[in-house]
Amino acid sequence: MLRVHRLGSRAYSVALPMQTALNAAVRKQRPPDDFLILVEHTPVITLGRSWKGGNILADPQRLRELGFEVHEVTRGGDVTYHGPGQLVAYPIFDLNRHGKDIHVFLSNLEQTAIEVLSTYGLKGERKEGMTGAWVADSKVCAIGVAISGWVSYHGLAFNVDPDLSHFRLIVPCGISKYPVASLKTFLGSAPPMREVEQRFVAAFQTVFGITDVKEFDDSQKDRLSCMDEEGRLTY
Questions:
Q1: Does pTM top 0.90 for this prediction?
Q2: Checking phi first, is residue 85 left (phi over 0); if not, alpha (psi -120 to 50) or beta?
Q3: With contact defined as beta carbons under 8 Å apart, do 112 and 143 qualify?
Q4: pLDDT by residue (tens digit) across 157-216?
Q5: Is 225 inside any structural domain?
Q6: At 70, is the secondary structure helix, strand, or coil?
Q7: What's the CA gap between 67 and 140, in Å, rounded?
Q8: 228 inside domain
Q9: Helices 193-208/102-119 angle, 10° precision
Q10: Are 86 and 140 in contact (CB under 8 A)?
Q11: Active-site residues: which are they?
Q12: 1-17 confidence digits (pLDDT tens)
């Protein structure tokens, strides 16, 4: 089963402890199910393990004026942006049940985004030597994961209708050669976020061979429905 937790709009500083707590609980208890957190973040710049101190084009004062959070995190990759209009998906998957192969896992995340693009009539592609999902030469979905005890966290960010000007405050993923785009870029108008979420959940099911889904609305909660106050899985 895939247990989907919808957080609505959350600051990165609020959502990050929720996914890391779930990762720890899955590593400790090894449940038979997979977990997927779906969220829209308020504006934030995150710095992955490959970040070397560059690729941020705005000074700290400008970022503060814009209300951005900035976080150094444990995912792979360089600098990226999250904000309203972008669907962020954090799969907390025990890879012991998904081939125990990080490269296959990353490829499956790319394929999930490509499947979603195809439902909107767009031809999603991979680029050799780069992660993510692309339409022509524009990046629509960025991917950056971490693995602890063979359990994944962090994940992917799919551009539905974010403020693309915010990406100009950084060099996204350290890549200056190619632009960032969104569903709205190619469709002319953005589909509802809830619709995109549903298509993502269906694509996760297809790509990862998951047979059943249970969904939780955690948008008004301070912790995930599947966990107690001590950080244990309770379902």
A1: yes
A2: left
A3: no
A4: 999 999 999 998 888 778 778 899 999 999 999 999 999 999 999 999 999 999 999 999
A5: no
A6: strand
A7: 24
A8: no
A9: 130
A10: no
A11: 173
A12: 999 999 999 999 999 99
